[in-house]
């Protein structure tokens, strides 16, 4: 998949960079049995109070139900590769021998007509779901479970992949896309390959209206607010008022927020490098 630029017939097209949809199956429509309605909160909680700023509006979307667990045995045939408005990665519609259909994350190189397998004894090929105890050393993988049977929680964004580095006792040693090296139980599962749509990060909106279509409202810099609205507000001219802080007064931009007593800290061998 590559990117494309546009002739500037309108101002919004002058700097726009879009991702080509060559990987997607032409004419494929969402599977009705696997989509559901999802309402937008507009940043409001159950009391109607705005708890998240700069959200609202946006085009109506249907949520695709993704099979992150991959716990169904047997082969499945890839029917089509489709777009998902709720994630950066593309998704693949697969059909099992008994006629059951499911959506999975589409790894790089997966095409319509191929078959994927999940479970013990599966070959370490793109799109197959294996236990970490069976993943070969050096293999790229995604959609990794943190707890057995929980479903994939790690490495699900477009273009990312983790590396199987080794095994220690009952743990697999995995290098995450961030550079962090951590242990994960061998009884957890992962899907072979890297997530597709790798050029997603090269996309440029071109105009503010495209972000409005996604439900993102204009962001206001804290330094131009009033003191009542933000700790960095007020002052004469462009005075920022000291160190960058959050709306609640906590230091931002580099301050560590991870709990020192978090249980999974014991599973992290080395911290992220970027």
Structure description:
By secondary structure, this protein is an all-beta fold. It folds into two domains: 3-42 and 58-201, SH3 type barrels (Roll); 220-267, Irregular (Ribosomal protein L2, domain 3). It is built from one helix and 17 strands. The protein has one helix at 208-213; strands at residues 3-5, 17-19, 35-37, 62-64, 74-82, 91-96, 101-105, 115-118, 129-131, 140-142, 144-145, 152-154, 162-168, 171-175, 181-185, 189-192, 268-270. It has a seven-stranded antiparallel β-sheet with strand order 9-16-10-13-14-15-17, with no helix packed on it. Strands 7-6-5-8 form a four-stranded antiparallel β-sheet, with no helix packed on it. Strand 5 (74-82) and strand 6 form a beta hairpin. The longest helix is centred in the last third of the chain and has 6 residues, at 208-213. It is globular and about 70 Å long. The chain starts with a strand and ends with a strand.
What is the number of helical segments per DSSP (H or I, 4+ residues)? 1
Give the averaged pLDDT, no decimals. 93
Tally of structural domains: 2
Could you list the spans in which at least 5 consecutive residues all have pLDDT below 50? Answer: none
Main β-sheet, in a few words?
7 strands, antiparallel
Query: First CA to last CA: what distance?
Result: 26 Å
- Alpha carbon gyration radius: 22 Å
Q: How many β-strand runs?
A: 17
Give the CA-based shape: globular
CATH topology-level fold name of the largest domain: SH3 type barrels
- What is the N-to-C order of secondary-structure elements (H for helix, E for strand)? EEEEEEEEEEEEEEEEHE
Beta-strand portion reads: 25-35%
For this structure, what is the CATH class of the largest domain? Answer: Mainly Beta
Helix and strand content put the structural class at mainly beta
Q: Strands across the major sheet, in which order?
A: 9-16-10-13-14-15-17
Question: Can you name the CATH architecture of the largest domain?
Answer: Roll
The helicity comes to: under 10%
């Amino acid at each position: 998949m590559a990117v494309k630029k546009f002739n500037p017939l309108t101002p919004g097209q002058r700097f726009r960079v879009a991702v080509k949809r060559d990987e997607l199956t032409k004419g494929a429509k969402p599977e009705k049995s696997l989509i559901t309605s999802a309402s937008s909160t507009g940043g409001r909680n159950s009391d109607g109070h705005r708890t998240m700023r700069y959200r609202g509006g946006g085009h109506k979307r249907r949520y695709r139900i993704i099979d992150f667990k991959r716990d169904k045995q047997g082969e499945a045939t890839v029917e089509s590769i489709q777009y998902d408005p709720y994630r950066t990665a593309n998704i693949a519609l697969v059909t099992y021998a008994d006629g059951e259909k499911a959506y999975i994350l589409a790894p790089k190189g997966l095409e319509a007509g191929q078959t994927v397998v999940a479970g013990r004894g599966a070959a370490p090929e793109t799109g197959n779901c294996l236990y970490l105890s069976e993943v070969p050393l050096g293999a790229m993988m995604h959609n990794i479970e943190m707890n057995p049977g929980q479903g994939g929680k790690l490495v699900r964004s477009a273009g990312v992949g983790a590396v199987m580095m080794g095994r220690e006792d009952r743990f697999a040693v995995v290098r995450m896309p961030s550079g962090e090296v951590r242990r994960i139980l061998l009884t957890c599962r992962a899907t072979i390959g890297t997530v597709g749509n790798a050029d997603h990060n090269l996309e440029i909106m071109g105009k503010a209206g495209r972000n409005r279509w996604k439900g993102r409202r204009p962001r206001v810099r804290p330094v131009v607010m009033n003191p009542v609205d933000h700790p960095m507000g007020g002052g004469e001219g462009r005075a920022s008022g000291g160190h960058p802080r959050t709306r609640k007064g906590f230091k931002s931009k580099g301050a560590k927020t991870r709990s020192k007593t978090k249980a999974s800290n014991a599973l992290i061998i080395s911290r992220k490098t970027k």
